[in-house]
Specification:
mainly alpha
Length: 243
Amino acid sequence: MNTKSVEPTGEAKVEQFDAIISRAAERKGGEEALASLVYQPLPTSDIAAITNDRVLAQMTKSVFQSGFVWRVVEAKWPDFEEHFFNFDISKILMMPDEMVERKATDPKIIRNLKKVTTIRDNALLISDIEREHGPIGEFIAKWPESDIIGLCDLFKRRGSRLGGFTAYNVLRALGKDTFRLSSDVEAYMRARGVITGGLQSKTSLKAIQNQFNEWHKQCGLSLTEMSMILAYSVGDNRVGFSQ
């Protein structure tokens, strides 16, 4: 079976989200089984309490996981924490170029100078945001879920290597309510005519955000829940298959 198939075929129209939930439940063995696979974003108060070192740590982890084997990054992560001062922003910003280059050659971490350089760059991003808006955790927590694409665009423009799916992965990992642009989500959006151009174009991203906003009005579910349920409702996401 083509993993990108989205039923029904024919002249496709965007469905009410209840229909998507029903199809996802059928694929995953019932409503209880589906519910066990879907999780909630963190409460706003928990996100507001996240410190800048943990935001930088997650940005770094997501940058290194992009295009790489995630389990290797996880295995080496304790060494990343040790080598980069537990991602203490003030210490990271004081690192001279020579120190950055030296750390990028250490076999205990993943040796990639361009990605290691993003640690200092993104520390500066966080420092700038905190100077302009206050604590980074509160800044992320207060950002409206109806414009997640705007927050991701800010990280992409002002940060380093936070474009593509990376900023969305950072926010999801931090517990911020965020949809993810998985291949299954993209497949649905294309099959139903929500998007026709490139996935990362401003037009496509705005159309996807608007569609999730409309579904939220219908069902009241979070972006996180809707994104996961939508992915489970298409392609080969039946019992026995994973997302």
